[in-house]
Amino acid sequence: MPRFGVPFLLSTLAFTAAFARPVRAAESPDPLQYVPGSAQLVLKIEDPRKLAEIITGLDAVKDGYSLAPGRELLNSTVARRAFQMLGYLERELGAKWPTLLDQIAGGGIAVAGQIGSEQAPALLILQGTDEKMVSRAFDLMIQVVGDELTRLGVPNQPRRGTEHGAETVMFGEGLHAARRGAVILVSNQAKGLEAALTMRPDDGVLAKKSIRDAKSLLPKGPLAWLWFDFAAVKQSKQAKDFFEATRKDFLQTVVVGSTIDCLRRSEFITAGLYREPTGFRLAVRLPAGRSEFPPEFALHVPPGSKPGSRPLLEPPGVLYSQSFYLDVGYFWKNRDKLVNDEMRKQFEEGEKGVSKVLPGSVKFGELLEMWGPYHRLVVVNHDTPPYKTQPTQQLPGFGYAVTMTDPKFGTAVAAALRSGGLLASIQFGIKQSEIDHDGVKIVAYRFPENKPYPDDPNGVRFNFEPCFAVVGDQFLAASTVEVCKKLIAEVKRTADLPGSAAVWRAKAFAAGGGDALTALPDPLVTDAILGEGVGIEEARKRVDALAGWLKTLGTLRLEIDEATAEYRLDLVWESKK
Q: Are 368 and 413 in contact (CB under 8 A)?
């Protein structure tokens, strides 16, 4: 079959299935009953029409079509042909798409396959609720593909037959389809289709314990869910080499070691898509948690009932906020047990070198032990630029807050930063100042605006006035004094708020992105002028419209909770409207 045949037919089926309405189990059997137990990946849409109606009904989607990129998408060749195809199906089958698609795929949609090879069998299943309408749609599908083949001058036409109590059709070596009652099956291989039609229930994927365990880990009522046989992946040499190498890599151990360890012990990965009051939740689960962590991963999870992370800092103008647990002090205290002798010697030699340049008697290793486990980061828009001189590339502000296990940490770090500031003042003319704000002393450094820097012709330095402060049990560092003041207010606001079980949390704010776009529209304005040939006023209107739409998108939140017996990752989008 020519290359266009597979995407043409699959796009037709997928478009048809995307709007199907869910029905009760009593009305329609589970499409997974046709999936063989050899499948390593299963995706099922439980409520196809509901999912499609939610997506198309979102204000963000509807408003997006009014923007220039949205209008261009609707006017594209692909979109026009899709709507023409939908109209043709409605006319030929005598029903509007909601009723029509209820009948063709109202019982659900399933996609299954194997991994590791382009020749691995794949299967698409549409479970209908009206056998007569499914039969008519199947015939119409064959006719449409045949007409398209004729139009393109391809001599080979679809070949129909009957096998295992089902109508079958072969569109070429790479695409086979069948209809049995109210079910349509499509596969990339003849043997894949035959396996689905001849499978015994006990040999199917529904009989696998792994599938049942996966569904029990997920929250109830997903719109769609996925199961991935990770046990099969772990048998490959590449996977074995990866897991072995990561246990020896210090950086990976510190950054993502606990996640990799949960993957190493998991037989499957499962995920579900859910409707939230104003958005969606993607829940990913692994059947492995902190209870079997090796000793080195204690740096990723708090002991006992302590919270996994502190509340997120959300100052005015925030673009991004992150909070996580990482006990660097634990690692340093237990380095003899956690790393091999060669790596430990390298760390200790590096520690001695850093300690020599630190002021006072405090060693770098002692600083690591006093460095607290709760870290928080923010990226935030500026209300006013930190300098009168504007850099060519304007950057948002950055801030960092960390707990201290010993007040000496703040004193020692402050002394080190002051020493560094003294050297910088001699070399670059940087000036130090102390600012009292809300009972907190901020130590800040500013670049002179009347001194040229040959190594910084674009003035990137004018995005920064590095500063630090101590608030209670936390040490703060920021890129500008304005950001530091915002951090101080947020640290105080969140001081008595409860933490979260999640050991890693992050949140992106579309409103902050819209504000940043409004403040710095020139790149997109230039893009619109050069790329679309519009005038400067029209380009500015388009950018303003895009910024306004962006602000309605709300927030995107990511949380990772390494619970006792399972690993939980949740990605949540909440629109503003």
A: no
Instruction: Encode pLDDT of 250-302 as tens digits.
Output: 777 777 888 999 999 999 999 999 999 889 999 999 999 999 988 778 888 99
More confident residue, 301 or 115: 301
CA gap 363, 355 in Å, rounded: 5
pTM for the full predicted model: 0.87
Token readout for 488 is: 């101080």
Instruction: Please give the structure tokens belonging to residue 236.
Output: 């490959």
Distance CA 190, CA 170 (A): 8
In the structure encoding, which two tokens stand for residue 237, read together?
A: 């040499």
Q: Compute the average pLDDT of residues 358-369.
A: 75
Q: At what angle do helices 77-93 and 131-151 cross, to 10 degrees?
A: 130
Measured CA to CA, the distance from residue 374 to residue 329 in angstroms comes to 11
- The whole-angstrom separation of Cα 472 and Cα 402 is 11
How many other CB atoms are found less than 10 A from the CB of residue 290? 21
From CA 540, how far away is CA 153, in angstroms rounded?
Answer: 48
Amino acid occupying residue 18:
A
DSSP 8-state assignment for residue 398: E
Distance CA 129, CA 348 (A): 69
CB 463 within 8 A of CB 394: yes
pLDDT band at 321 (very low <50, low <70, confident <90, very high): very high
Residue type, 577: K
- From the centroid of its chain, how far is CA 104? 32
Task: List the one residue out of 168, 124, 115 whose CA is nearest residue 32.
Answer: 124
Angle at 374 between CA 368 and CA 378, to 5 degrees: 110
pLDDT value, residue 443: 93
pLDDT in tens, 204-247: 999 999 999 999 999 999 999 999 999 988 988 888 888 888 77
248 Cβ contact list (under 8 Å, min separation 6): none
Residue 9: what pLDDT? 41
Q: Are 430 and 441 in contact, with CB atoms under 8 Å apart?
A: no
- In whole angstroms, give the CA distance from residue 225 to residue 45: 7
The C-alpha atoms of residue 12 and residue 138 are separated, in whole angstroms, by 11
What is the reported pLDDT for 420? 67
* CA neighbor of 551 nearest in space, from 513, 520, 519, 525: 513
Cα–Cα separations (whole angstroms), residue 165 to 4, 130, 162, 181, 197:
29, 18, 7, 9, 8
Q: What is the spatial distance between Cα 507 and Cα 522, in angstroms, rounded to a whole number?
A: 27
Rounded CA-CA distance 200/185 in Å is: 16
User: What is the average pLDDT score of the chain?
Assistant: 85
The residue ranges of DSSP E strands in 326-415, in sequence order, are 371-380, 397-404
- Among 567, 46, 555, smallest CA distance to 283 is for 567
Cβ–Cβ under 8 Å, residues 361 and 427: no
β-partners of residue 469 are 476
Spell out where 153-237 has E strands.
Answer: 159-163, 166-172, 175-180, 183-187, 224-228
As a whole number of angstroms, the distance between CA 225 and CA 281 comes to: 12
Separation CA 183–CA 93 (nearest Å):
17
For 186, the token pair is 């499509």
Calpha distance 300→292 (Å, rounded): 13
441 and 418 Cβ atoms separated by less than 8 Å: no
